[in-house]
C-alpha cells in the first residue's frame, strides 16, 4: 500500500544540516518503500539552519550577503534573507553565532553583527523583520546589535562601553535617541527557549556555561543584564526574554519586538501543517533526543503538530536519552546503528540512510 510520508527534521548540530538530514532519511526510506510519496520539509527552531529552511520553503527568497563584525570582533562574511512582500529574515547564528568564535569569550562576545544585518535589511526597505534567535556566543542583552543600530550604552563617565556582556556591569545610561526606528510591519523574534532574562533560571546562569562562563563570569553577566533591565522599559521575566543571551529582551525592550515560539512559526512557513493533511507518517529527528526535546525544540513542536493532525510519528536521532512521548511509534538512534557516537558523527549520511530504512521497516 502506497503511503504519504512527511520528513521534517532539525539539523544534527555539528554533523549535518536539516536539509541533508531530510534527504538522507528519505533515501533510506525509499530503499525499503520505493513507492511511497515522500514530502521533504526541513524545519528549524530559530537557531542554526533557520535561514536555509526559509530559503528552501519560500519561492522568491533571495540571499543577501554582507560583511559583519563577528561575535569576537573579527570581520566575518554573513547573510540575511529577503522574502517577497518586504519581509527580511536575520539568523543570529549566521552573524553572531558560537561556532564563529576562535576561542570562547563569555564576557567579550557581542551581537554587533546582528545589528549590522538588521541595518542592512532596513536599508533594503524591509517592512517586517523576523530575527531567528539561537546558537549565540554572547550574553550582551542585544547591546551590540542595538549599538549597531544607533543606540549608545554609557558608563558613569558618559563614555561608550566596550563590546560584550561583561561591560554591562558598568552600564549607567542608555541613549536611544539615535536608534534606527523598527520597520512599520514590526519585528518578531523567533525563540527556542522560555528562559527569562535574570536570575538562576536566566540567560547567564542557564546558557553561560556553554559559552565558557565561569561562576564569577555568570555573576558579572547577570549583573550587567540586571543593569540593562533597569534602564530599558521591558519585561525581563517574560518567557523567552533570555533567549540568545538576552538578545530577545533587548530587541523587545528597545525596538518593540515581539517574542514568538520559533518552531510553530517556522513550520507554518515551511508548509508543515498543510503537508500533514492526509499524511500517513511523519518522520522527524535531531542530534540528541532527550527530555528537553519536547520544550521548544523542533521535535517537540513537530510531534505536537502531528498529534493534532492524527499522524503517527517516527524519530531518528544521533542519541536517544528519553522515553518515546505520546504519538511517537518508534525511534532509532544513529549511535546504536553505528556502534557508537563517534562513528555515527563521522559518517552521518550513511547512518541517517540506515535510520530511514529502519523506520520504513517499522512502518510497514
UniProtKB/TrEMBL annotation:
GO terms for molecular function: glycerate 2-kinase activity; glycerate kinase activity. Its EC number is 2.7.1.165. SUPFAM superfamilies: Glycerate kinase I. Transmembrane segments: none annotated. The keyword Transferase applies. It is an enzyme of class 2 (transferase). Keywords: Kinase, Transferase. It comes from the Bacteria. One of its GO terms (biological process) is organic acid phosphorylation. The keyword Thylakoid does not apply. Belongs to the glycerate kinase type-1 family. PANTHER family: GLYCERATE KINASE. This is Glycerate 2-kinase. The lineage of its organism: Bacteria, Bacillati, Actinomycetota, Actinomycetes, Frankiales.
Amino acid at each position: 500500500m502506497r503511503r504519504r510520508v512527511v520528513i521534517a527534521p532539525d539539523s544534527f548540530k555539528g554533523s549535518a544540516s536539516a536539509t541533508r538530514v531530510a534527504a538522507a532519511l528519505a533515501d533510506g526510506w525509499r530503499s525499503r518503500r520505493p513507492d511511497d510519496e515522500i514530502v521533504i520539509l526541513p524545519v528549524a527552531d530559530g537557531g542554526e539552519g533557520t535561514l536555509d529552511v526559509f530559503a528552501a520553503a519560500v519561492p522568491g527568497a533571495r540571499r543577501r550577503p554582507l560583511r559583519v563584525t563577528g561575535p569576537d570582533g573579527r570581520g566575518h562574511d554573513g547573510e540575511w534573507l529577503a522574502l517577497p512582500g518586504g519581509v527580511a529574515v536575520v539568523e543570529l547564528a549566521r552573524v553572531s553565532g558560537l561556532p564563529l568564535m576562535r576561542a570562547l569569550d563569555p564576557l567579550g562576545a557581542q551581537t554587533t553583527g546582528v545589528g549590522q544585518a538588521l541595518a542592512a535589511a532596513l536599508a533594503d526597505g524591509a517592512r517586517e523583520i523576523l530575527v531567528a534567535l539561537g546558537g549565540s556566543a554572547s550574553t550582551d542583552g542585544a547591546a551590540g546589535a542595538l549599538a549597531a543600530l544607533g543606540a549608545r550604552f554609557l558608563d558613569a563617565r558618559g563614555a561608550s562601553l566596550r563590546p560584550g556582556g561583561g561591560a554591562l556591569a558598568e552600564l549607567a545610561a542608555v541613549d536611544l535617541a539615535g536608534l534606527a526606528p523598527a520597520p512599520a510591519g514590526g519585528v518578531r523574534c523567533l525563540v527556542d527557549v522560555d528562559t527569562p532574562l535574570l536570575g538562576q533560571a536566566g540567560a547567564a546562569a542557564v546558557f553561560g556555561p556553554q559559552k565558557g562562563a565561569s561562576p564569577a563570569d555568570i555573576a558579572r553577566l547577570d549583573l550587567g543584564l540586571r543593569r540593562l533591565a533597569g534602564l530599558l522599559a521591558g519585561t525581563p521575566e517574560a518567557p523567552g526574554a533570555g533567549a540568545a543571551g538576552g538578545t530577545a529582551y533587548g530587541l523587545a525592550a528597545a525596538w518593540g519586538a515581539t517574542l514568538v515560539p520559533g518552531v510553530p512559526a517556522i513550520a507554518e512557513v515551511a508548509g508543515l501543517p498543510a503537508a500533514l493533511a492526509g499524511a500517513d507518517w511523519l518522520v522527524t529527528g535531531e542530534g540528541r533526543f532527550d527530555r528537553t526535546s519536547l520544550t521548544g525544540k523542533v521535535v517537540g513542536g513537530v510531534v505536537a503538530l502531528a498529534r493534532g493532525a492524527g499522524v503517527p510519528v517516527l524519530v531518528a536521532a544521533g542519541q536517544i536519552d528519553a522515553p518515546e512521548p505520546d504519538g511517537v511509534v518508534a525511534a532509532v538512534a544513529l549511535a546504536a546503528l553505528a556502534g557508537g557516537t563517534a562513528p555515527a558523527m563521522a559518517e552521518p549520511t550513511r547512518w541517517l540512510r540506515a535510520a530511514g530504512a529502519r523506520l520504513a521497516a517499522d512502518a510497514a
